[in-house]
Amino acid sequence: MRTYEEVLSLMDSGWRVDDAGRLNFLRQVNKWLGQPDRQLRIVHVVGTNGKGSVVEMTARILEAAEYQVGTFTSPALFDAREQVQLNHHNMSKSAVVHWYEHIRTVLMAHGEEPAALSAFEYWTFMALLYFADAHVDVAIIEAGLGGKRDATHVISRPAVVAVTPISLDHMQWLGNTLAAIATNKVAVIQPGSRVVSAQQEPRVTAILQHATQQVQATWQAIDVPVEILVDTPAQLRLQIAGVPYELGLRGQMQAENVRLVWQILAQLDLPTTPENRQLGLSQATLFGRLTVTGRVIYDGAHNPAGAQQLANELDNWGLRGHVILILGMLADKDTTAIQAALTPLARQVIGVTADNQRAMLATDIAQHTATLGEAMTQAKQLATATDWIVVAGSFYTIKGVITHGDLASEHDAFI
């Protein structure tokens, strides 16, 4: 039997979404595996920004009501097993090995090489098998990249398809226009599904509604009144449908995310009380999504919309001109737009090379540069008593600054 570490080393981390026949192959593999998705009540979450927050808040509320909840999200930040959780407990290493070996055996029995699946595809199938075996009450599955050729598109009967705000990202794979990206993402809508959505641009809403009608799904998007009562680095308090709630997550963008969470809960045959919702929202945490630890803010903003949301929040908190920005980005992102949103707020920018082979060089980001291991130390030396340190641009940047800078205690204390 292979070890967990050996299993990880055998998986190919590349994407296969540029293969036009990919989905047909994945559906065939799913059949070979017994179509575990058909044993599950699934909420399929797609969109550009906010997917992780929507999954986290929905799961916490349902767990507070004592349901068994499986979640599949990406990317993992510190441990690959973060992607597959059962009631917020990572899939065990032994379970990863077991289900990997099962999938590998099935592939070989049908004449396919184990390398026929990418790492993300393996994790998708492992999650579905693991949740089906655990007989979860609900599985909340986040799409990885787009929708049309994403591995999660093998899900054939989602109870709910939830669409977070759609904006420009991954354009080299999904298309160069908002309409093209929206069309790619909504391909996951299946016959009989209930479709709910965050507020979108009118042309995106039209695409969503058309796709829903075309496959005989049901459009269930409704307006949920949400008012921001308190929005500071220390506290986010919202009034949702007339009831005040304290949130564990931060940022005014959570008002839009929670509207979608309320819509998801309305479509599930899993009753929850206001007390469940309050407890769940207060317990929701997601490291790297506007995470505040002391006077350091970590945000994985890696596309123009995410960067603008972060900039808006820093402005709302009165931090313009009081930011030491540690910025590292991937070169295949819209780095110009990300920088345009974030750098005007900073008193000093420290460029770093993110911990990824696709990273933009630190010297192309800012005049002042640092290694990932030195960045936080330099930022703290530059910061005055009124400054805040912001780490942004990529989840790979956050991971690198923490791991190379020996700051694991900040992450450990947070979770």
From TrEMBL:
Protein's name in the database: tetrahydrofolate synthase
Gene Ontology terms, MF aspect: ATP binding; dihydrofolate synthase activity; metal ion binding; tetrahydrofolylpolyglutamate synthase activity
Mur ligase C-terminal domain residues: 295-395
Keyword Cell division: no
SUPFAM superfamilies registered for this protein in UniProt: MurD-like peptide ligases, catalytic domain (SSF53623), MurD-like peptide ligases, peptide-binding domain (SSF53244)
Catalytic activity: (6S)-5,6,7,8-tetrahydrofolyl-(gamma-L-Glu)(n) + L-glutamate + ATP = (6S)-5,6,7,8-tetrahydrofolyl-(gamma-L-Glu)(n+1) + ADP + phosphate + H(+)
InterPro entries: Folylpolyglutamate_synth, Folylpolyglutamate_synth_CS, Mur-like_cat_sf, Mur_ligase_C, Mur_ligase_C_dom_sf, Mur_ligase_cen
Stated family: Belongs to the folylpolyglutamate synthase family.
E.C. numbers: 6.3.2.17
GO cellular component: cytoplasm
Organism in which the protein naturally occurs: Weissella cibaria
Every Mur ligase central domain range: 45-190
